[in-house]
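Homework-ish question, so no full write-ups if that breaks the rules, but can someone show me the predicted structure for this set?
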Amino acid sequence: MTTMKATQERAQAKVEYNAFLAACPSRRLLDRISDKWVVLILCALGGDDSPRQPGAAHADAPKAMRYSEISRLLAGVSQKMLTQTLRSLERDGLLTRTVTPTVPVTVSYELTDLGLSLHHMTRGLRSWAQTHMAEVLENRENYDARTS
Amino acid sequence: MTTMKATQERAQAKVEYNAFLAACPSRRLLDRISDKWVVLILCALGGDDSPRQPGAAHADAPKAMRYSEISRLLAGVSQKMLTQTLRSLERDGLLTRTVTPTVPVTVSYELTDLGLSLHHMTRGLRSWAQTHMAEVLENRENYDARTS
DNA sequence: GAGAGAAACTTCCTTTTAGGAAGTAGACAC
DNA sequence: GTGTCTACTTCCTAAAAGGAAGTTTCTCTC
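A: Not a homework solution, just the prediction itself:
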């Protein structure tokens, strides 16, 4: 009972915010992009999985990949999540899904121009992670040592 | 029983991958970065919350913010998640947490240089979202119309 | 001096989400 | 006709997120 007013204000703010959120799709789109499987799939389809020097000029091959190829490359992903994420990316127009009726059906995925433009951003994230990883790990150790 | 071998291979691959994953912190770091609250907090502390023209030269003010300010700005976040995310960002050395023993204790958060460098990347994501939002929404509508 | 109030958290409980394992289709190879 | 392949779907359990209330320590009011 002590924080009645504060709680009420918080609830009020939430209602206002929810309305704002519903009206602000860019926030929601940002939520969708900030998903680890989305970023990893974009990296995979963008075509650089081996650690490469950032800044080096290399072709951004928007290579098409099969379902099983992606699955193998991002081996940590469950089939369910992979399918789910690929579908939502297709829905958003970031990649195309092509079914070839071969012996066992073949499905290939390829980045669209839109997907490729996003890939450029996520590739920045990726190279940031590679560049600053050591620093972050050191910070973590220091922090843990301080607080243990 | 039909997919015994395939399942075994998958399990095998998973074991190998998990070892790889444990040994490859950049993948894990990428997972951490690809978190919606991380991105939003970085945007907040970077100091541009109003929609601004991307590309316009404006100061990247790494302004310090209080807990309650951030909470208000990202009103959708629960207090628990905010505290949790801020702690982990502090642990990673992306921001500093300063406690000032005023009347009710005041805690302020500020991006470090490392955090600021990541902020530049996430700001790119943000502006991408704002730029291409309309296109994505259109794609979604088309997709839903096609598959309904 | 009893009570309210404020900031920044915790704690507890519920709901949503992700992950893992197994099942499905349909054509072919043996 | 049993096994195998790809690209899924379904089901169930485990982990994470969300919401609401409680906690602490001080100070100001009446």
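Now go work out the reasoning yourself. Hint: The first strand of chain A starts at residue 65 and ends at 66.
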